[in-house]
Amino acid sequence: MLGRPLEELLGKSMDELFPPELAGPMIEVDSKILREGVPFAVEEELNGKYYSTIKFPIVIAGKPARLAGFTIDITRLKLAEEELRKAKVVAEENETRFKALHNASFGGITIHDKGRILDCNQGLSEITGYSLDELIGMDGLLLISEKTRDLVISNIMSGYEKPYEAIGRRKNGEEFPIRLEAREIPYRGKMVRTVEFRDITSQKQAEATLAAEKERLAVTLRSIGDGVITTDTLGNVVMMNGVAENLTGWLQEDAQGQPLEKVFRIVDETTRQPCANPATRVIDSGGIIELANHTLLIARNGTTRIIADSGAPIKDANNATIGVVLVFRDMTDKQKLLDALQRTDKLEAIGVLAGGIAHDFNNLLAGIFGYIELARMAEDKEKTKIYLGQALIAFERAKNLTRQLLAFAKGGEPLRKTGYIGPAIRESATFALSGSAITCEFNIAQDLWAVDFDKGQIEQAIDNIVINAKQAMPTGGKIVIAAKNVALRDGDHPLLKPGKYIKISITDNGAGIPADIRQRVFDPFFTTKQEGNGLGLTTCYAIIQKHAGMIDVESIMGKGSTFHICIPASPNIPDNNSAVIPATHHGQGRILVMDDEALVRTLLNKLLSSMGYNVVTAKNGEEAIKLLLDTDAPPIDAAIFDLTIQGGMGGKDTIVQVRKNFPDMPVFVSSGYSADPVMAYPQKYGFTDSLGKPFLKEELAAMLNRHIIKPSSA
């Protein structure tokens, strides 16, 4: 133990064998033993090892005279005891943890051997009403109602480990639904079974409530007159009611799990192209959607129906989308009725329109014919000139009425040019109020942005609104016209995109517009005036809409009305260096006139001849091309083509052939339908410029001045 041979130890004192810190205590202990004659035992650690030492006195002549003792190395014993102590602590901790988990279970847990309960948790006591002492050792079948005891015995005998339901029995005799699940486990050296014993009364009540709610939902769905289909988030059908079954031709059991587009086949009535999957649209948008008009539902047997449809997301308590619900109805019969009513309304509207236009045109024609007749009768040239001038004024009004109709004709486009709209607002309002008792105040910002606009149409819109305001103040009043730059953000206007706009506000202090009429003031043919045709504000609405803008009205009875116009600002810079177009023109060369109206050909021949040109005419495009390609005749320097030719090739098709041989020739398009896109964008279709019918000599001269260089005079 000391690592030294025996001969080195014999005869040595303690302080010679051990270091002072050990030798001192040992000598002190030895002295005490000899003094008191009592044995001494101690366990101590030395250099990482454990030793047990026993010392006792040797008595000689009745007195302690010598000491004897022995020391044993007990390191292995001490280590084994430590391991045992640790194992015991772990076992105690595991048992404590097991019991805590055992008792923390929401259900009852029992360990039994052939039905006899060996152990259980506090949960079983709470469920059954028995104490733990009563349960330990009890036959577990006493916790089962006799109604399902055979079922439980059968499952115990067969070693059934899947969950199943039975009826439990409490200490007070009350029976209740339970759910049992067993497992085989080792317990105290043998294989036994543990059983989870769960009270499912609340679950059964919830199931009953859910079943009742489901039945109420089914009754509700059966009672709804619309078709209802629900889908999951993948767009597969989950449920559909009886109406949906009838309309689609699919039964619930056949449709369930099928993709929606297979069961709910919808196409566009006009193009017969498939419509977008409404469930996908709802999932993508996250909100409510509606089908477009003229949507057809194709049933399983191929029959078609016009339907109206809406879709909405189904959300859970956390506002997460878990599916889609579609509600749709058969609109076939209703649509037929609506179409019939619309046809009737259209006929009535045409009657109103025809009557109004006939009335206005008759008045204008009466003025034109009357002044022309006076001019024919007059012997004085000055009077003849005055009468013809009055006829031209009536003619100009007739032209404006035609443009008023064309302004809201389908497909019409304004002839836009980039410029500043302020002067047009001021000029048209001033002209409309000339000679009236109405004063006008202008608040037009000096830094207005440029606008791409048709000057004539915008002036007509301003003119119509100002006249409307003037008529609202028959005894006089004040109109305030303001114009400013505005930058609309998303949501500022429900019908306009974000961006830069010019906002024009025209305010009067008249009687105001009643609320029940305010929403109809822009309707075609609607008027409260006896002699009106109901086209003025409708024309304004059409003009502003075709300029990609919007017009709104607000009014307070007794205080007046304000019309707000918003028109998009232009990114382009206006050309402010354009020279004033002279009212006269003189040139030379040959000009081809193609028109199917002899009267127009004759008129253009005389007008162009008076300007110095030789004129050749054609009735249609075929004749025009022959004249252009005739190498035996002098070359043609320019051409004016009518846009539409009855029974022949019109200007739009003719220009395609002409440009193949004459890419640089000035070719002008003319038409009475000034709102046609070709008239709005002539260069896009191959023409040099456009001239709307009817036109004055000055307008023809201005167009020729823009594009045909006059020969310099010698």
Question: How does this model look, in words?
Answer:
By secondary structure, the chain is of the alpha+beta class. The protein folds into six domains: 6-73; 105-204, Beta-Lactamase (2-Layer Sandwich); 231-330, PAS domain (Beta-Lactamase), CATH 3.30.450.20; 337-407; 417-568, Heat Shock Protein 90 (2-Layer Sandwich); 590-707, Rossmann fold (3-Layer(aba) Sandwich), CATH 3.40.50. It is 40% helix and 26% strand. It has 23 helices and 27 strands. It is elongated. Residues 530-534 and 578-582 have low confidence and may be disordered.
Structure summarized in a few sentences:
The protein is an alpha+beta fold and 714 residues long. Helices cover 40% and strands 26% of the residues.
Q: What attributes characterize this protein structure?
A:
alpha+beta; Beta-Lactamase; 6 domains; 7-stranded antiparallel β-sheet; 26% strand
The computed structural class is alpha+beta
Average pLDDT rating: 83
Q: What is the gyration radius calculated from CA atoms? A: 53 Å
Which fold name is given in CATH as the topology of the largest domain?
Heat Shock Protein 90
Q: What is the count of helical runs?
A: 23
Total strand segments: 27
Terminal Cα span:
145 Å
Overall 3D shape: elongated
Largest sheet data: 7 strands, antiparallel
Low-confidence stretches: 530-534, 578-582
Q: What is the CATH superfamily label of the largest domain?
A: Histidine kinase-like ATPase, C-terminal domain
Share of helical residues: 40-55%
Q: What is the CATH C-level name of the largest domain?
A: Alpha Beta
Q: What is the name of the CATH architecture of the largest domain?
A: 2-Layer Sandwich
The tally of domains stands at 6
Fraction of residues in β-strands: 25-35%
